[in-house]
Amino acid sequence: MSGQASQTGVLTRRRLIGAIALGAAALVAALLLSVSIGSGPPGLTDTLSTVLSSNADPSSISVLQMRALRVLLGALAGSALAAVGVVLQLLLRNPLADPYVVGVSGGAALFGSLAILFLGAGPWVPAAAFAGAAGATFFTLAAARVGSQPPDVSILLVGVVLNSFASAVITFLKTMVEAHKAQEVLFWLVGFVGYPRPVTVAIVALFVLSALGVLIWLSPRLHLMALGDAAAARLGVDVERTRIIALLAASLATGAVVAETGLIGFIGLVVPHALRLMLGPDPRLLLPVAALFGGATLCLTDALTRALFPIFYSETPVGALCAAIGAPIFVVLLRRHLRGSKA
Amino acid sequence: MKQSHYALGQAAAIALTIGFGNACARPATTAAGSADNQPSMTLAASSASGPASNAAPAADARPPHFLLDRRPQTSQRIVSLAPSMTEILFALDAGERVIGVTRFCDYPAAAKQRTKIGGFLDPSLEAIAGLKPDLVVTVPNGSNRQVVERLSDLGIPVLLVYDYDLADLDRAIPAIGDAIGQRDQAQALLQHMHADSAAVRAAVAGQDRPTVLFLYGRQPMVAAGPGSYADALIEIAGGRNALGSAFPRYATISLENVVVLAPDVVIDAYTAGHGAAPTPLDLERLANLPAVKQRQVYHLTDNAALRPGPRVGTDARIVAALLHPGLAL
Lengths: 343, 329
Prior knowledge:
Low-confidence stretches of chain A: 1-6
Oligomer: heterodimer
Largest sheet of chain A: none
Radius of gyration of chain A: 21 Å
CATH architecture of chain A: Orthogonal Bundle
Structural class of chain B: alpha/beta
Number of domains of chain B: 2
CATH class of the largest domain in chain B: Alpha Beta
Mean pLDDT of chain A: 87
Shape of chain A: globular
Order of helices and strands of chain A: HHHHHHHHHHHHHH
Number of strands of chain B: 12
CATH architecture of the largest domain in chain B: 3-Layer(aba) Sandwich
Mean pLDDT of chain B: 82
Largest interface: A-B, 86 and 70 residues
Strand content of chain B: 5-15%
Structural class of chain A: mainly alpha
Shape of chain B: globular
CATH topology of chain A: ABC transporter involved in vitamin B12 uptake, BtuC
């Protein structure tokens, strides 16, 4: 990978600060732009005047407040998913890892489904989903300790099996309930951001930001672990502990996001790859920048779903739109990178 | 990590989730990997009761009501979040005051010209709020719940009405009439609907009562069970629903079930309202079905019979014409 030599040179403080500043600017711009785009007023042209004018229409202000909460939740979800994607791809040494691969999606979906079907919709449903996510993570970690496979392979296998099992149970449950309820479940399947209450956003922010803090604190150790468990251990890293803490933080962040937005795919898988092509694999750089750009990406895509409302009078699910737009962009990036490294 | 660490971690996780759940009051997403539905409920399994939510709460348990008891001051700018509600509003002479409808609201024709605010499961909060409605009428479901709650947070009165069966309609129409100041029209509409149904009942009295299978969908094959609107139409039209009381309101059945049930008449509403050419049922495998032998397999093209509402008399008459061909109605 000779083409990467200039990218993966020594990580200077200047480079780190520059990249983070760029990411932060992108996020702020994305937030401001997203809050100005809606499926109803105020729109791009009158958001600013609504905010600044002293006798603005109060219902427009209320809508703006609700939209702002949606934009924030989208940014939090996107940053969590992208950052967790970076960490899992590194820890599991697998480029196909995404935030859901350690069983988080299966656990959250299964417990959330059970709650909806047997208790009805209500505040216990996100709690159940989150409990499922946390439980699945613990189960994966515990189960992966058995056996002689290297831990990254074990965790991946157990996670995949857990997701399959949960999926089978959910499919069985779906066939037992009324057809229109099953359609509602399908509708939630693709994931969307919605209009959360302020308290909800605060709680998700608490989980996501603390998890991100922990992961960024661990990033130097994660960087060394890329050399292999044995080499990292010789350099003083407590590999087992680092791996467990990182996985727990990742799962808590993902669980909080999934409980509120469902399974928004693509961001956690592809944003890390796209940034790695440009910045190299060092998680001390990649992790914070992925968080910032992941947040920007999801909230802009969510804004796009609102902007496209007048076409079919429905908002495209945000995960589908992410994939539809992001996949071609990613292919272009990948080709440019491959061409570069052949030179 | 030691055993005690795991226990501590799990306790912490439980504490966190309790706190988390209290703050987050949104129905969670549920996810499974696959979108395919390959149900094959045998008759034995179907007679067992499904999860609690499969059975509809009794009609008494779902009266129309205003969310948070907030009643409308005026009702000049009404937004409807369900096609059945749109039909009722227009039937109550309030069509001029309806300013927002779903993209599925296609009856009466004037409804198609109103501003579209999204779908039944996916209304757009901002599109609705942008119309500045003074009343929103909706049929509650798990998917539009969050939007309905936010509308209420914005101070907009929301009337929650159910439309699963005729008993619901008997309460829905007066409630809506009351909310929009059209009480007399509501009473008149109800009387007209009852008289219409009674006329159909009278016309088919004394006729044989064929068993009827009413299909909503193909994959999965969903049929109308007891408590559904189609079930009510069948009963008025002088038929018997092939699905007995053990079945849920919308039953997922298989080809095997159809053969065992051996209905005299099959009404297939699979492509109703979509304008697509009807896909024929797998009549080769069903050649021994009474309905096939008597050539009483019908495809509905109009989606009226799928939508509970003021047209119940007309809908029942359509079904009666299929069950009793040649009878004057």
